[in-house]
Design brief:
Elements: E1 5-12, E2 20-27, E3 30-36, E4 45-48, E5 53-56, E6 58-63, H1 71-84, E7 87-94, H2 101-104, H3 109-123, E8 127-132, H4 137-141, H5 143-150, E9 154-158, H6 166-171, H7 178-190, E10 194-198, H8 202-214, H9 220-226, H10 229-245, E11 250-252, H11 258-269, E12 274-278, H12 280-284, H13 304-316, E13 321-322, H14 331-335, H15 352-361, H16 368-382, E14 400-410, E15 429-439, E16 442-446, E17 449-450
Parallel strand pairs: 1-4, 1-5, 6-7, 7-8, 9-10, 10-11, 11-12, 12-13
Antiparallel strand pairs: 1-2, 2-3, 5-14, 14-15, 15-16, 16-17
Length: about 475
Amino acid sequence: MHFDVVIKNAQLVSPGSTTTMSDVAIKSGRIAAIAAAGMLPPGDETIDAKGRPVLPGLVDAHHHLGYWGSFERECETETMGAAVGGVTTAILMLKRKNLPPHLAARSSYLEVFDEFVGIVEKHSLIDIAFRPYPMTSQQIQEIPDCVSRLGVRGFKFIMHFRAGTLEAEMSGAHALDDGTLLDAFRHVGRAGGIVCVHAENQDIIDFHAVQLERAGRDDLTAWAESRPNVSELEAIQRVSLLADAVECPLYIVHVTASESVDFIAEAKEKGRQIRAETCPHYLTLLKTAPGGKLAKTKPPIRDEVSRERLWWGLREGVIDCVSSDHMPSRRLERESESIWSCQWGFPAVETMLPLLLSEGVHKGRLSLERIAEVTSLNPARIFGLYPQKGHLGLGADADLVIVDLDKRACVRQKAFPSSSDFSLYEGWELTGWPVLTMVRGRVVMRDGDIVAKPGGGNYVRQGPLHL
């Protein structure tokens, strides 16, 4: 058989199996053959992996575009940044605020979907799936159509941000009352989807924030103290009860607290349908981070006890996924206001895999196989992208990333394509970096440089969940 691309001398990394030295053949954007090293004929293009690990391209299951800036522009800059970090598929959070103005004025996701896909496919360098926020009765009623017509399986809900508040206005999202939330979960469960919940108790947060503001506190540690661990734990317990009541699978986004990890572990032992993710910043930073207001995020970065429990949960299978929660932003917008009123979020997608390699593999916390599982296979399975995405198997999309485990480099945000002008890891020397990223058989990044034009990304429909 004639092949378009052959990758030789590849140390294939597959979750749950022994890493082997192999050659991989690609035809028409899919993996067409896998054989022992040296056993495949050359293709039109031959890439020598030089014995380096080759992982399935990362599936970033939590990604924001257009939150603080132009959606169209960020479709280019941030998906290029994703490719630098080895990400080949991203699930974008979809709400009206993030859309271009002429689309944001419409109330139905069904009405804006085709044009939204067109914008993404025109500008994105990587493949994209969507996760909408149902916030109105109309959007909740449309959930079954989102599943059947649009190929959407995950739906995002938040439990903080009361409607009408400044934060809700800034975010473009608000919490639903528990009765409406239960009804929305019922619709999602019956349609074969999964609910993805940002779990924090706003009453607990408000009480602590008022006390801290009155005391004149304006620092990152105060931000964390205003959102104590119990605010996350209580919300996870409550939303788990609601999801169980209507037999709807539940995915907790960005878990941060040690107590939350323990609750999820217990829930899984009891056979409950609960999955969870965490993010690189919760695994690597503390609430005393020198970045100050630049490190503001929701939920907050916490203490060493929670950080180490997250690593444990990730290693033991309690936490299923690592996602970036990437949210491009600018330094000036953060530093010009108090921590209580300024923007939140930061760039994270470019450094997600290097951090996991440097802080995980090289420090003995995680194996390469586990990293492939939590960054690719698990999110693909949980959100209905498997078997097209998430693994290096015959017939799968040829999405892959070649990693140099020995490469040492300092993080320099100016070297990344992102529209953000800062990184929380500026100056950190990390060991282990992606050196080649391929999306459906097309090389998009080589040695840290983008080598393909934006616009080659496809919208990916989500199918049945593999829980």
